[in-house]
Amino acid sequence: MPDAPGPIVQLEGVRFRWRRKGPNILTLDGLVVGRGERVFIEGPSGSGKSTLLGLLAGVTVPQTGTVQVLGERLSARSGAERDHFRADHIGYIFQQFNLIPYLGIVDNVVLPCRFSAKRRERALARSKGLRAEAKRLLGHLDLAEPALLREPVTSLSVGQQQRVAAARALMGAPELIIADEPTSSLDADRRRAFVQLLFDECKATGATLIFVSHDASLEPLFDRTLRLAEANQAVGSRP
Ligand SMILES: Nc1ncnc2c1ncn2[C@@H]1O[C@H](COP(=O)(O)OP(=O)(O)OP(=O)(O)O)[C@@H](O)[C@H]1O
Which UniProt keywords apply (predicted)? Predict the structure, then answer.
């Protein structure tokens, strides 16, 4: 059950390969992430960071082993069930933000509530309407200016687009926020500021944050680090 107590993420005996006869990209015997934790994932390019995030988000499932999120065994669910679960419980911040260019800023942020009744309910429990909740979150992320909010999303700076993407992931208070290198196009000062904003918002809702980055200077800000190359030492060498 998604509301059951216990860890938010639990992986056991996971083996994942992209091609049927290809090497195992992920070989993770165990991984547990507690509720409210802020976990930094680091590893060289190609070590499987994005692949792992895809498993946690239920985009893919392992050939062997189990992936549980919020007590729900995603690895045993159908693709449609996993899509539904993701919409309800996971906010995903993509490296390239994936904002919808023909929607306004506020509508981009409201979007998850169009796909999830749960997130709609939670957003409406906090504000009088979905747009009001989107603006509240944008305000917390330093995007409160009404004139700015009327701009097309494509006219925003990279840093502003990134904060819109963060507000969208946070909308409707999903329990798990997954961020895949969301700071790679920012300078060092702004990276730290962005991470701090993300922490503040996760703390406010009790959300767990799993954050992938190549920027080692961000690592000390997090509760702990998963070094994927070490956790995954046996890549390609085990059945
Ligand atoms: N959709 C896919 N189909 C086939 N192979 C893939 C796919 N996605 C990733 N791979 C392969 O899986 C391996 C791990 O890739 P992944 O993107 O997870 O690594 P990463 O650690 O996130 O890398 P980076 O830091 O460069 O983003 C690589 O060898 C990659 O080529």
Answer: ATP-binding, Nucleotide-binding, Transport
- Tell me, in angstroms, the distance from the centre of ligand 1 to residue 45's CA: 8
Helices 158-170 and 130-140: crossing angle in degrees, nearest 10, is 130
Rounded to two decimals, the ipTM of the complex is: 0.97
Atom of ligand 1 nearest to the CA of 43: 21
Could you tell me the distance, in angstroms and rounded to a whole number, from the CA of residue 141 to the centre of ligand 1?
Answer: 31
- Specify the CATH number of the domain 36-60+77-231: 3.40.50.300
pLDDT at 232: 85
How many angstroms does the Cα of residue 48 sit away from the middle of ligand 1?
6
CA of 82 to the centre of ligand 1 (A): 21
**What's the confidence (pLDDT) of residue 159?**
87
Q: Which of 94, 85, 86, 89 is nearest to 35 (CA)?
A: 89
Residue nearest to atom 27 of ligand 1 (CA): 45
Domain boundaries, the chain: 36-60+77-231
pLDDT, averaged in runs of 10, over the chain (239 residues): 74 95 92 95 93 96 96 94 97 90 95 97 95 93 88 91 93 96 80 89 93 93 94 57
Residue with tokens 């893919």: 60
Strands of the sheet containing 9-16, edge to edge, are 26-33, 9-16, 64-69, 72-73
